[in-house]
């Protein structure tokens, strides 16, 4: 047997379970009285009605609407709530100190601050523990392993978190003020003019600091002077106790305000009401959903033991917060009882009418003749009228005893079980003392905590402290009875419906009087007046049962004696006035004792000074301070009337004793001394009239009844023998018939030889019935049930039917165990088995009629595997390209399926290829330590301007105005990524539309941002008030301007390229988002992604980037062809505007995350046209004196920027030496024909110079670069490359972004050939 784990819940022993026969079940109170000697020793017991007793459910489900209580499980348990309250106090303390409490972790678990604080206090406090080095001892007590230096960590956490709090609790944190004011009235800090210090002289000053520390009296060190957010007092952080290291970031309270805030009394704990009403169906749906989600299995398959252990784990932890709802104390009077009642809305069928008058109907039980609550005139909801309870999993009822320590009975109409715990009545005070000892903090604030039904404590904790605890699981159709003063608690296993009510029998009466005295000491109100009930019973003494009369007489004797002593006492006190009052007609609140809240009935005291107040005779002195002669005694009965009432009850009780004495005299007489028939019949008649219980004894002494009774006895014995023979000869007799026959034998005062055999057959029949019932429900026939039935069958007497059933059961158990082990090995096998293997095994186990968890798990695994394979096949069905999210989700799900899935390796390879592609793309595009993701770089920008300084409120307001014209659905990268991922089809139309919309929004916002940044630089007189650059300061010194966003920056605030050439654009750190690789490095990425055939947002963004790049190149070609660039040179010199088309064209070129020769060429061309360099400028763009003296307001090239450069242009010299130097060696790749390659080498250079007056057409075509924007490179050697596509045109390698090595190793295809839709401008 395995040992329970540490802190694992151990179920207490089971309480008694009773199964009454129909004869016993007929009288509820007689049966309860019969089982009371056994059941009251455990406090609770369970009663299973006869199987045929199944009352219909009569509650009006349609009208039943209720608001449940909210229960947070870890707040229910007393010790856990103490810890939570302590943590709340600590958190509030630090919150008022301007800090947020963060509970530290030690050894990877949350540190129990409450236990640490308690152990340190027990060891003498922080100083003592440090002095005597007991931190290791404390760490061991807290459950940490010794030798790991945990003690030093605990000391650090205590000193940081708990030590200041304990100083505050003891008042040691209140600083001693060394400065006292001369004035008797404490002036405000700003009005202080005179103060007396603890020096040897007085210091008077006409001027004082506005804020001064109330400890040292100094206003120095203002940066370390704290101002209280509660009272505005000032303190230096180094004058506080303990001193603070830094100024708190949040609100801070001084020690005085801290004491006021934390000293407020705590609010009494109680359950909150839920915010919504439920119907029964709605609550059931919620409850079932909660349980199935929590345990991840169907609600009916969750074992009760698992729910029980999980419940006690949850209520004992502070790390998990589980909240449930409980529909408790619902009045049946409003919505109808679950039992049928007369004149109710529920129509009772004729065969169910006997349930209307059944004593076990909870509407009838409190008002039966044997119940003393019949004599309580008020309808007390919950005591005389049943309450309804609708439970869900983990909803609980806390430790409590019933009002007036009465009995209670609970019936579970339907639903999942309800788990109960109970303690016997004699252990009630012990249980209370244990709870007060273990959670004294709760009882200090709420002395009547156990009467509030809001506190629970683990039964194991109570048992460890000597409290006897018993448990039971109440199933549907079963009763649970609690006995007087028996504490009980429990919880619900799931959705169920129960009904409960109280009742009191005559054995309860002395207990009830003791309860009233106990309530008086606790100042707890009474639900009804015990004295009123006794007097009501005494008024009906003639009709009272004699046993009840005896109990009432004893109780009444105590009551009258006590009343007489109290009235004599108040007379001696000087109370002279008296008045007769009918207390029963007064509302309960008007006749409650003002002091102890006891309900007055026999008497009460009032005073004219406060006529609405009344006290019982025990608390006369607590009413008021008036003279006793002003007090008035209110009484219900005079003592002269009370005594006759008691005498009538006494006569009723003693008449029974006299009759018993006479009957015993008759029974003891022998022979001729027996009484005559007339005397015996007279006693029989008396017994009938008085309803005496011993009437049946006299029947044996009457001649005719004796003869009749003897004949009747012989007839019944003969009938018993015949029935016995018939049942014993039957192969499978009914257990009900056997039990009925044994019940008949109880009425036969004869020794019957068939009884032992009948008892054996009854055990066999019950076992066979249990086996048959278990076999008829295979879904609940588990291995433990089979083993239990086999163990029970081994102890039975041998019989052929038992042996056959045992053989079948043993065979089923053997097969089930073998398959359970085999299936477990199949599931846990590594490597995994194929789906076909598991499917074959599943088909075999499905025919086993038993509940086999492993086989059910196998079925679930096979189902999941088939579903996974179906989804994997459908993923690429019809040539569709799968989305990365769907692919990743499918691979992730496969990890939890222990089956060999053939497509998994292929899908994992696809995912791996995608990851490798993303890494390659990231290396190509992303800068080192880039804050941007790959998708952010590839997509058009959604956050244009968001990265700039927060103070640009105007720009931030202006830019969105333009964006409002477009769609507002794609305002962030997350929206774009979601839109790209949600387009499931492989077509790019959706992604094209999404990215086009983002691109349009990017252009609109960026153009507005450029206009805003340029406009603020126009008014030069306001230059000092401008806020520019990342530092948000005014322009000063050398500035540099971003060509994209047009913002200006200080040279010292941003990194700039010192040797930036003339014609090279500079972008700020916010606009330079990537490496901007050449297009020939980007195109292979797209090609490799198309080979992988998986859709992902980054791929769509890359495809859109390339298409956008091509479209931009085409627009540049059109601008060149249509002469738009030539118009720039014709503009007026004063007007530097490029026009919206060229401006937008240049902006989009800078936005492209790809390096293109066209971008640089277009920028240089526009720059040269609008701001040409002087002719004497240096050729390589070094700064000259003239450049430095040139105006910095040029609107066309890096406004207020001092860096200039000169473009390199083809030299138009006819010098032969220059021609020799400028020869270019055109290199052709190995793929082209040898002849062309050799011809190229022989020719050496396709140079075409100005000195050639009339070159041929072929030579001109051969010597010109086909790139739209040729960079016209110069040098000793210029390398060429020929397109391997369909056009066969030649390009400078530098113009198309190729290196010599790449040109040798790889094929090059120009942009015209890679994009069929692209047409080169002629």
From TrEMBL:
SUPFAM superfamilies: ARID-like, Clavaminate synthase-like, FYVE/PHD zinc finger. GO terms for biological process: regulation of DNA-templated transcription; rhythmic process. CDD domains: ARID_KDM5B (cd16874), PHD1_KDM5B (cd15603), PHD3_KDM5B (cd15687). InterPro entries: ARID_dom, ARID_dom_sf, JmjC_dom, JmjN, KDM5_C-hel, KDM5B_ARID, KDM5B_PHD1, KDM5B_PHD3. The lineage of its organism: Eukaryota, Metazoa, Chordata, Craniata, Vertebrata. PROSITE patterns: ARID, JMJC, JMJN, ZF_PHD_1, ZF_PHD_2. One of its GO terms (cellular component) is chromatin. This is [histone H3]-trimethyl-L-lysine(4) demethylase. GO terms for molecular function: DNA binding; histone H3K4me/H3K4me2/H3K4me3 demethylase activity; zinc ion binding. It catalyses: N(6),N(6),N(6)-trimethyl-L-lysyl(4)-[histone H3] + 3 2-oxoglutarate + 3 O2 = L-lysyl(4)-[histone H3] + 3 formaldehyde + 3 succinate + 3 CO2. Residues 15-56 form the JmjN domain. Residues 80-170 form the ARID domain. It is found in: Nucleus. The keyword NAD does not apply. Keywords: Biological rhythms, Chromatin regulator, Dioxygenase, Iron, Metal-binding, Nucleus, Oxidoreductase, Repeat, Transcription, Transcription regulation, Zinc, Zinc-finger.
